[in-house]
Specification:
175 residues; alpha+beta; 3 domains; three-stranded antiparallel beta sheet; 5 helices; globular; binds adenosine-5'-triphosphate; Kinesin_motor_dom; cytoplasm; microtubule binding; Kinesin_motor_dom_sf
Length: 175
């Protein structure tokens, strides 16, 4: 199956060495080829749907990995973006960075509201939840004083997954 048609696409982002790593004399150990989607680690080669090399900025990551999903989302498809990697590999930076180098979440939210604004014929309701799961503990990042035990993830009879904060009896479907 062509990579673009696959239901799950895996992209790899190579982050640059951090100043402290460079100071310790660390060296890059991966060779990546954005044109073929291949990375080489020693004598092993891996192929991904997309490779974002060190020089790729946040906008390029968003364009390659998220923008097409958002377009599909507005045509009625569910979409999930999942950042996976060892500690310090750049998940938080890629997903959430809120400075000049905005990550995926602020870019996706801005584009969501832009696309909503462009369409006067449909009324949209946007609900957002922002949840951290760490070692089986939940944290509601929009209401940080909610106790972990009061947050539950539920599935309704249509398979929609939502977060339920019992203390406030609210039900917030995840975007
Ligand atoms: N593409 C990048 N360009 C520049 N700096 C980056 C990049 N990716 C990550 N960093 C920096 O690398 C450090 C580690 O990144 P980050 O905190 O995002 O990792 P993480 O995968 O979320 O780690 P953890 O699982 O421990 O929370 C941070 O200082 C971050 O600013």
């Amino acid at each position: 199956m062509a990579a673009e048609a696959a239901v799950v696409r895996v992209a790899v982002r190579v982050r640059p060495l951090l100043p402290r790593e460079a100071l310790r004399g660390h060296r890059p150990c991966l060779r990546s080829d954005a044109a073929t989607g291949e990375v080489e680690l020693g004598r092993r080669r891996f192929r991904f749907a997309a490779v974002l090399p060190e020089a790729a900025g946040q906008a390029a990551v968003y364009r390659a990995c998220v923008q097409p999903l958002l377009r599909a989302f507005f045509r009625g498809f569910n979409a999930t973006v999942f950042a996976y990697g060892q500690t310090g590999s750049g998940k938080t930076y890629t997903i959430g960075e809120a400075s000049d180098e905005q990550g995926i979440i602020p870019r996706a939210m801005a584009e969501t509201f832009r696309l909503i604004d462009e369409n006067d014929l449909i009324d949209y309701t946007v609900r957002v939840s922002y949840l951290e799961v760490y070692k089986e503990e939940f944290r509601d990042l929009l209401q940080v004083d909610t106790a972990s035990k009061d947050i539950q993830i539920r599935e309704d009879d249509k398979g929609n997954v939502g977060m339920c904060a019992c203390a406030q009896a609210t039900f917030l479907p995840m975007l």
